[in-house]
Amino acid sequence: MHTARDEGDRIVITGIGLTAPNGNNLEEFRSNLLEGRSGVVSFETRYLGHPVPAGVCRFDPLRYQKRKEVRRGTRSGSIAIYCANEAVRDAELNWPQIPKNRVGVYIGITEHGNVETENEIYELSKFDYDISFWSHHHNPRTVANNPAGEVTLSLQITGPHLTVGAACAAGNAGLIQGVQMLRLGEVDWALAGGVSESIHTFGIFASFKSQGALALHEDPTKASRPFDADRNGIVVAEGGGICVLERLPDARRRGAKIYGEIVGYAMNSDATDFVLPDWRRQAECMRLALERAGIGPEDVDIVSSHATATEQGDIEESLALKDLFGDNGRVAINNTKSFIGHAMGAAGVLELLGNLPAFQDSVAHATINLDRLDPRCGLTQLVANRPRRLDDVTYILNNSFGMLGINSVLIVKKFAE
Amino acid sequence: MNEEQIKQVILEILARIAPDEDLSDLKDEVPFRDQLDLDSMDFLDIVMELRKLFRIQIPEEDYEHLASMESTVKYLAPLLKNVESPA
Question: pTM value?
C-alpha cells in the first residue's frame, strides 16, 4: 500500500534523533546548514598513507550507553542507539507506558561488518594470523541486523527489528519500511531511518580511491563539492538519523508535534551497471513518488539532491532533475553532502531532516562549495552557497541513490489537518 | 609472576572488560559474578585477554577456575610462574 487510502494510512514524523558531522540534534544541524558550516575534517585511516577528508560525528555515546556496551557493540550500534533515544525523547512518548512489542525498528545501512572485520583482522595480524585470537564478539558485531538490534537492547523493544541494506539509498529505504509496516498494522510506532559507521573502514576509502572517486582537498571543508566543476570525488562520512513515525490518528490522539507527513515514496532499480547510475530510472523513480503523492513536479518546493560529487553521478542526477523540472524556476535544489560529506546509510535521512525545518522557516539551505557550476550539470535551480528564502514550503522531495542501481525517493508534506 | 602480580593483571583485564565497575572493593574469595555485572561473553574476554598477554590456552573445562579472584590466581600461578609480569 503506497498511498494513504484513509486517515489511518497517513504517516507522520513525530520525533527526530540525529547525529551529523556538523550537529548532534536537529536545531544544531539546521543552524549549521543555514550558516554554511561544514563538518568535514582531516581524518587518519589505516593504510591510506595520508589523511583524508571525512565527516566525523562528535556525539557522546555515553549519554545512552554504558562504557561496556560501547566496547562490546559497534560504532553503528552506538550511533543508532543515540539517534533512537533522542528521537523517542523528542517525540515526548511516555516510554515506560508504550507496549514495546508494538514498536518496530527499521534502520537503513549501506554496509555493515566491514569495520568490525577489518579491525579483527588487524588485531589478528599481531598474532601471526592464529585464529584462536579471533574475537567471540565478531559474529554479534557483524550480523547485518546489528545496529537495529542494539537499539532494541537499549530501549527494551520487543517488536520486530531489521536493517534495510540498500547501499546509499538506505536512509530513505529505512523510512519507507517504517511507513509500510505502520500501514500494514504490523507496529504502532516505527523507529526508522539510517546509520553509517563507514569512516572506520579503510576499505571504503581505498575502494573509492581505486575507483578515482575519493575526494581530496587541502582544506577538508572544501573537499565535498557536488555539482562544482572542480569536484574530485566523495567525502565519506559517518552519521545517523532516526525518526519516530506514527499513524496520524495516533499522533493526534496524544497531541504529538508533527514535523511532516510522508505522502509519497518510490524505489526502483537501474538494472544497467554495478556503479554508474542511470538518470532515466532516477527520473522514473521521482515520477512514481510524485504520482503516489498525488502531485506534479510543479508542486515541489525543495529538492534535496543525492549528488555525491562524482563526475558521472552528478551529471546523471542533473539530467533526471532537468527531465522532471525543466526550467521551472520555483523549485529550490540543494545538497547536504556539500556540508557533511556522504553519510552513506544515513545520507538519505540526514539530508531530509536538515531540510524539514523549511516547513517553518521557508528557507532552502544552500549547497556550499559550489563556486563554478559544472556546465554539464547546469541546474539553474541550485541554491548555491547562500540559503534561499522561499514564499512557502509545502513539499520536499528527497533523492537517495546507491550502487547496483538502487533508487529511492521520498516526498514529505508540511503537515496540514 | 607471583600471585600478587597475577592479581594485578586480572584487575587490569577486568577494568578493560567491565569499565563501568568499581573494582576497589572486589573480594578475592567471592565469585566475580556475585560482585560484578559479568556474563559469559565477558568470561570469554578474560580467557582471550590471558591468551593475548601470555599465549596460554585455557581449556573450556577449566573455565570454572576463573570464577573468583582467589580461584583464578590459584589456577594461573603454576601456569605463569616462569612468566615475567607485563608491567
Answer: 0.97
